[in-house]
Amino acid sequence: MAFTVSGKRNALSGKQTSNLTEGSLWKGILFFGIPLIASNLLQILFNMSDIAVIGRFAGPTALGSVGSTSTLVVMITTFIIGIGSGINVVTAHALGKQDDDEVRRTIQTSFLLCIVIGLLTLCAGELLQGLILKLLQTKEELLDGSMLYLRIYFLGAPALAVYNFGSAVYSAAGNTRRPLMLLTASGILNILLNLYFVIALNMDVAGVALASIIAQYCSAGLIVFSLIREKTEIRLTRSGMSYDKRIASRILPISLAAGLSNAIFQIANLFVQYGVNTFDAVVVAGNAAAQNADALDYDVMAAFYTAGSSFIGQNFGAGKMDRVRKAYLISTAYAYFVGTAIGLLLYAFGDSFLHLFTQDDAVAEAGIYRLSVMALSYGFSALMDNSIAASRGLGKSAVPTVIVLLGSCVFRIVWIFTVFAHFHTITSLYLLYIFSWTVTGVAEMLYFRHAYRIAARSFSLERN
Predict the structure, then answer these.
(1) Residue 266 pLDDT grade (very low, low, confident, very high; cuts 50, 70, 90)
(2) Nearest-angstrom CA–CA distance, 252 and 241
(3) How far apart are CA 175 and CA 257, in angstroms?
(4) What is the pTM of this model?
(5) Beta strands in 330-425, from DSSP E residues, in sequence order
(6) Percent over 90 (pLDDT), the chain
């Protein structure tokens, strides 16, 4: 890694995890984020392969069926990914304090929690999918395919939870390369299975869903095996697995708040999908194809949120509040400029990008229009998302969740039933993104500033 490594050595191995409390923050956050960017890009490219294969080899109806599920799938998966936030923060705090016993208990407790949460998510997804698709007014010709896709896809929820547990632990320890290596292996498997199931076996919707869950279980198994064989403080022990209620009480408020924030955000997007579904099937398919750009941009930006949160967590645990503030500002700057640059590139090469997912020119044209509205908007989401991640790095989760609820959910729903209802144009629907990001971002930034001042004052009093 490119970070200064110092501090407590593991008693068994003599090896160390990365110490994020020293060295250049500009360089450290960038080099910490690069493997995360590569990992997120690979994950998005592998997910895009689902859409690309089905769009090119199974036709527009199958593409629309999978596309109609995208918001619901993202809602569930981002909830699970949010669970990793609490694990990342609490593990980083323990590493910052150089408390090996607390690190061990945190990892064991987190592992057990993620298995339970993954199983509960699976059950919820299977029970509610049909109701939600109908509430979204999914087109009748797409409904059967959408339900089949979801029925298979949600079987992978436990594996997704376990992989994100491992990824959060490695990120807290400053090792972002290991999850990248493991994701690469499972992602290649995903692509190969996509091609085999869809082209060779003509399984279309069922084929891409089955390929996804097989790859998810592969990545989960690989990351658990890696943690078991780990020689540093973050080793997952195979015997003596224990559940610590005290640590769980620290993880769950942050994890559930992060997961619910992500889910709430996507609940609002369900209403956006409702608005999209009021247009014809070409617009629905074009929106589905263009949403791949959203995932690409968001997930690259998210690498800096994770980097910032990890640096903030370890430095907060070590009481280095000046580095906490600087890490927040630097990670926000990186995320904003990267998000804007990617948005502009996606628009500039929009036609080529969209034809990866569809051969229908009308569908591609509908997708390009969405990109034209979104290109300069993406960067503004950093003001909101990175401020939320930074507040969680300080152990604060309740207020950021309430702000997201009001700014991203309530605001968007009100917009849809007022502004969009009045104009009923696709432009008026897409513009709600930048307005909600800006309003919510300002509120989240002000809250982080408040939480930081309280934490800095508390450390100052302790020292005196």
Answers:
(1) low
(2) 19
(3) 25
(4) 0.69
(5) none
(6) 17
